[in-house]
Design goal:
The protein is α/β, with parallel strands linked by helices. The chain folds into two domains: 111 residues, Cobalt-precorrin-4 Transmethylase, domain 1; 123 residues, Methyltransferase, Cobalt-precorrin-4 Transmethylase, Domain 2 (2-Layer Sandwich), CATH 3.30.950.10. Strand 4 and strand 5 form a beta hairpin. Helix 2 packs across helix 3. The longest helix is centred in the N-terminal third of the chain and has 14 residues. The protein is globular. The relative contact order is 0.16.
Length: 246
């Protein structure tokens, strides 16, 4: 029986991969990786390492999550070192918790290697700090693609009224218009600042700045992966933009 490393690949820039992640990737017998992990990371693996792609994109899944869980488990029965490589952090909307529970229930040893989450790093590369003294005292990270199987939404929209908080929506590009309208509906000003950041931290990064009223129109045609930042901190980009956009 082998060991599984639920490993965060970071937001895209390969230099943001952690030292620990680098170490386990070099020793891996098999790497099971998703769509958002930088493919260049695979070049760090040793000769003979097996690569298995299980990416998901816009509802098109290579394997459903249940099958991915089973694949990880079966790989641990076959290999000594299994790396499950996920973009960002495994426990931030990465379904890493589900995979860990599946392994726990089958008594498979595993370790979680956190990755730098896109929720903080991507806005930073866009010159947008998620908190800033006198502007935003807190931030929250929200799924922008809640499961369609839920009978009622778990998102507490009524709690999003504060002007002192930054809201980061992950995986919400296709629901951008709905998100903007919902925030206006609960009382946010239609001119409230927001941004859409596509392919953040990479040489293909694109940043669209707008308001809740016009962001969906301005961001039309933007590619995934992308996240949405809603908050007054977006205005700081004018002074804090340091990474070149393409």
């Amino acid at each position: 029986m082998g060991k599984v490393y639920l490993t965060g690949a970071g937001p895209g820039d390969i230099e943001l991969l952690t030292i620990k992640a680098h170490r386990v990737i070099q020793k891996a017998d098999v790497i099971i990786y998703d769509r958002l992990a930088n493919r260049a990371i695979l070049e760090m693996a040793k000769d003979g390492c097996e690569f298995v792609y299980v990416g998901k994109a816009d509802g098109k899944h290579t394997l459903p999550q249940d099958e991915i869980n089973k694949l990880i488990y079966q790989s641990a029965l076959k290999y000594e070192s299994v790396v499950r490589l996920k973009g960002g952090d495994p426990f931030v909307f990465g379904r890493g918790g589900e995979e860990a529970l599946y392994l726990y229930e089958r008594e498979i040893p595993y370790e979680v290697i956190p990755g730098i989450t896109s929720a903080v790093s991507v806005p930073a590369y866009a010159g947008i700090p998620v908190t800033h003294r006198g502007v935003a005292t807190s931030f929250r990270v929200v799924t922008g693609n809640e499961s369609s199987n839920k009978l009622t939404s778990q998102i507490q929209w009524a709690n999003f009224r504060s002007d002192d908080e930054t809201i980061v929506f992950l995986m919400g590009l296709h629901n951008l218009q709905k998100i903007a309208l919902k925030l206006i509906e609960i009382g946010k000003d239609a001119e409230y600042p927001c941004a859409v950041i596509s392919k953040g931290t990479t040489e293909k990064q694109q940043v669209i700045i707008g308001t809740l009223k016009n962001i969906a129109t301005k961001a039309k045609g933007v590619d995934t992966p992308a996240l949405i930042v809603v908050g007054k901190v977006v205005k700081l980009r004018e002074q804090l933009q340091w990474f070149k956009d393409y």
